[in-house]
Each structure stands twice: as structure tokens, then as C-alpha cells.
Amino acid sequence: MSETFFGPDFQALQGQDPEIAAILISELDRQRENLQLIASENFTSPAVLAALGSTLSNKYAEGYPGKRYYGGCEEVDKAEVIGIARAKELFGAEHANLQPHSGASANVAIYQAFTKPGDTVLAMSLPHGGHLTHGSKVNFSGKWFNVESYGVRQDNELIDYDELRDIALRVKPKMICSGATAYPSLIDFKTVRSICDEVGAIMWVDAAHFIGLVAGKAIPSPVEYADVVSFTTHKVLRGPRGGMILSKAAHASAIDKAIFPGMQGGPIMSAVAAKAIALKECATAQYQAYAKEVIVNAKALAKSLEDEGMRAVSGGTETHLALIDIRSTGVNGKVADERCGRAGISLNKNAIPYDPESPAVTSGIRVGTPAVTTQGMGSEQMPVIASLIARAIKDGEDEAKIAQIRKEVNALTAKFPVYPA
Fold it and tell me: Does residue 10 register a pLDDT over 90?
């Protein structure tokens, strides 16, 4: 029974608020029964969930350990100090701040620490894989800053570092951001560092999507090159929803002041403790093996989708995600997303580079393997998953076929249970 997962306090919740209790149960069932292929999602450990639901939620702790603006912070101080030490050791960083409420919050702080409104920032184009906070006109970054964009080459769909350098030399940005949400290849941080040095720009890496692979020593780290690195603590990192910032010691004061009092008040101390737990988990040999397996699975899934007649952008992946051009199916990304959802497959529509469709429609889908790898699925399961995706996209108008695919999805996930009772 799903209720047994939540523990004895759940019975009180069911009596007090049965509507919300029912949602908790149904969401657990959805996570257990469906294929979770959202590249930015994962399953945290029960220990992380326990910290999130702990009494640390009750504590207001504006400020930093030993320098709080409220009394009674002795115990939560310990959790933050432990988390900071673990982050610095895991990533080889000189400074760490665990307080950002989200990846976007961390990015707001970075703009505040190193720039002022109107300054020029160079970042990856959203249609080519960047993020809203990298200069989108509907986001604060695009409204408050002069954001110039670089992208990928049309012939190989890889970052054009020559273009990046040319733009940097022309616009002389205060800060250059590398990192993306839908870029399946590795980033050449050494080259980006050289460009930043040439134009005198701060090097900011938004590592939200791939920091877990760095933590698991599965891909190269940006920390030695960057002035500052921001990221989320969920995704491959497998921690709670939240953000974090690493920086050189010279920038520690600016970063800390930008977080508090610059853009948020008290940290969510239950989340800070949960981040500390996740960081400890990431330091294990088991996690390092997991991070490498995430990439193995992503490569296998991308290849299997190509075997199904679709095209992997940039020829495949070197990370945890793959961007798939599905135009060969005759179905757009929006329809594919909806059809897969009805079949019990959670993924997302996504623009591909030089996409002829609008961002609301798209010609592609994005798939990721962090969650299914956490469940224990391996390369043997990736062709099966690819077949299920392809059938759902191509046969989605037939409700009987969708029902059959959902049945097969449920049978597969039952073999790799999430949060077993």
C-alpha cells in the first residue's frame, strides 16, 4: 500500500486533510508506475525526504552560521556548516553557499554579485539550449540586462567557440555564461576561460543540468576554471529541489551578500540539511558508479531512438540527456509530449537548434536517464523504452494502442520499483 511509505504521521494527515493526502498517494503511484524521463527530475533518497519533512522547517535563520539575525539557530547552524564543508570537498571549491531556494534564485544572485542593470552579458541562446535566466526577453535577465547570445553551429549542432569569441571581442561582456538545459554535449571550459580572460569577463557556469555528473566524476568539472558556478541540487545530483553556488574565495563575500540580504531572506533550513545529506551520498563509490551509468543509459537511449527512425541532435549525447528531432515521425513535439503522457511516459517537448516550429510546438523532445537509472534500469532496458516512446508517438491517435503501451510501461516499472513499501 502506498500509505505505508509515508509513515505513521500520514494517518493523521489523512484524517485532517484527506484531499491533500490523496494527492500525495496518487503522485507516489504516478512516480512508481510511469516512466520518468524528464532530464531535470530524479528520485531522492528517503533520507533526503526525511530531512525535508523535519522540524528544521520550523526555524527562521536569516544570515549565515554564527551571524544570524534570529536566536535559537545553534542546531541549524551545524547543518549548514556541515553542508558547506561537504560541498567544498566534493567539488574542490574554495567557497560554497547552500542557501538559494532554486537554480533561478542562484542565478539572480550571480547577476547581482557581478553586474548591474544594463550591463552586457554573453550567454547561450534559449532556442539553442540555453535557459530562461540566460537572457530570455520574458525573464528578468532579458529585461534588466543587455544579453548577447551565442549558439551552436548548424552543421554539427555543437557550440561554435569561434563565434563565441568573436561576439565577446565585439561586445566586451561583463560576464560570460556557459551551461544549458538542452545541450547534450560537453562544454570546453578551458576555451571559455581563455575567452573570458581575453575580454576581462567573469566566467559563470550554470551547471544545473550536469553538476551531478561532475559530482560523480563522470565528466570534467568547471570548478577549476570558473569564477562562479551555480546549479540546482535536484536532477542528477539527486538532492532536494533547491540551488547552490560555488565560487573562488575572492568572490565569497559578493556571493553571500547577493543571496542575503540581496535577493532572499531566511534559507529553508530543512532543504539546506537535505542538500548536505545528498552531498554526502554523492561522495560515495556507489554514486560515482551511478553517475557513469546515467551517461551509458543516455547514450543507449539516444541510439535506440535513432534505431526507431528519429534523429539525435549533435549525433548523440555525452551527458544525461538527449535531444531528439522527431520530424521524421510526422508528429511535432507538443503532440508527442501529450501522447507519451497518456501512455505513462513523462518527457517534454523541446525546441531543436534552428527549429522551424514555435517554442510552444517544437520539432523535438528531450529525454533524460537520471530517474530510470536510480530505479536500477540499465542499457538492456533502453531499447525497450525507445520502442515504447516511438510507438506512443506514432500510434497515439489509437486509444487501444495507447492503453497497451501504458500496460507495458507499468509492467516495466514494476520490475524496478520506486520507494518500495
Answer: no
